[in-house]
Design a protein that fits this description.
150 residues, alpha+beta, 7 strands
Length: 150
């Protein structure tokens, strides 16, 4: 009889992150900030993990500032997404809170090292460039919220 190798159950952990969809009007269209990595070709919205004692909103503003070089202001929440991923010895269920944001200053050239490139992208192009369906869903929420607020 073949031996059945028992697998140790993975630990399950919940993780929280926050980020933002930074948008601006450009002529008759909207543009959004995307962050990309050459190593794997991914394009996403900036996000990250809260520091101790930091609110979700503070995390979102800080992470967007660090990863894009832009100073931003939250306009409204866009809800959250969630996904699972594997880490050594555990499965992680990650919840990401997103906010619609507008730029108030700063410069994309001041972004940190986490992404190779950060740029303004027209909406139609952003939709094609985003690497994950969940990010396209967040983009749809952001566009609806921005148009409602305009």
């Amino acid at each position: 009889m073949p031996s059945i190798r028992s697998r140790r159950p993975s630990r399950v952990r919940t993780a929280i992150a926050a980020g933002g969809v930074v948008m601006r009007r450009r002529n008759d269209d909207w543009e959004v900030v995307l962050a990309g990595r050459q190593s794997d070709g991914t394009w996403v919205f900036p996000k990250g993990t809260p520091d101790r004692g930091e609110s979700i909103e503070e995390t979102a503003e800080r992470e967007v500032r660090e990863e894009t070089g832009l100073d931003v202001r939250i306009l409204r929440p866009l809800g959250q997404t969630d996904y699972w991923f594997a880490a050594p010895g555990e499965r992680v269920h990650k919840f990401v809170h997103f906010f619609l944001m507008e730029p108030t200053g700063g410069d994309l050239s001041a972004h940190d090292h986490e992404y190779d490139e950060v740029r303004w992208v027209p909406l139609a192009e952003a939709r094609r460039m985003l690497s994950f369906d969940t990010y396209r869903e967040v983009l749809d929420r952001a566009v609806a919220a921005a148009r409602e607020a305009a």
